[in-house]
Amino acid sequence: MAKIKEAKSNVSKIGKVLPYILIVCGVLGLLAAFTLTYDKIHVLQNPNYDPPCNINPVLSCGSVMKTEQASLLGVPNTIFGIMGFTSLITFGALMLSGAKFKKWIWQTAQAASTLGVVFMHYLFFQGVYRINAICPWCFVTWMVTIPIFVFITSYNLEQNYLPLPKWATGLPTWIQKNYLNVLIGWYTVIFLILLQHFWYYWQTLI
């Protein structure tokens, strides 16, 4: 009985914080995507334009903007970002207003957040190991994509909106207790990768 009450309490906790997570992450992501789009337009108009986010050889937007990885099917990634984060903010605002969504809406949100986090890791890999530069504003969008995925997944698991095999029936309970640890561990791995790969530059700053 105690476990049931605990689960209900945790579901309520995530359900209450989720709209705020979506709105805050959406606003940060939208700001980053809009700024990158603004700079991208200026780069196209003037190849000599130096974006303010060109901080050093490692943290540089300009070098990333000019690569083929900065576009998908001929459309700049930032345009997809603007559309996606705007939708996310709207979704979070509707949740705050008391709107209730059907199961298929949440499953669609799960698919979108999963696609977003997979694409984020593709861009992360390309930036670190192929381009050898990290766009600061891109990094912001990457960092907000992770909690969006983690919290939407946690909520969907708690509400039994995601089909699970028998061997994973304990996953919702585990997620309820460890979603913050998952988030912290995920960030830690990313920062360790950046520290190790670009150590040749970071050590010159010490």
Structure notes:
- This protein has 206 residues and is mainly α.
- It has helices spanning 2-45, 62-65, 77-96, 103-131, 136-158, 171-197, 199-202, and strands at residues 71-72, 75-76.
- α4 (103-131) packs antiparallel against α5 (136-158).
- The termini are far apart.
- Residues 1-11 have low confidence and may be disordered.
CA(first)-CA(last) distance: 55 Å
* Count of discrete alpha- or pi-helical segments spanning 4 or more residues: 7
Give a short account of the largest sheet. Answer: 2 strands, antiparallel
Which strand order does the major sheet show?
1-2
Strand elements, count: 2
Secondary structure category: mainly alpha
Rg, rounded, reads 19 Å
* Average pLDDT number: 87
Gross geometry: globular
Which H/E pattern describes the elements? HHEEHHHHH
The low-confidence runs, each spanning 5 or more residues with pLDDT under 50, are: 1-11
Helix content: over 70%
Oligomer: single chain
Q: Beta-strand percentage?
A: under 5%
At a glance:
The protein has 206 residues and is mainly α. Helix content is 73%, strand content 2%.
Ordered list of secondary-structure elements with their pairings:
Layout: H1 2-45, H2 62-65, E1 71-72, E2 75-76, H3 77-96, H4 103-131, H5 136-158, H6 171-197, H7 199-202
Antiparallel strand pairs: 1-2
Structural key phrases:
206 residues; mainly alpha; two-stranded antiparallel ribbon; 7 helices; 2 strands; 73% helix; globular
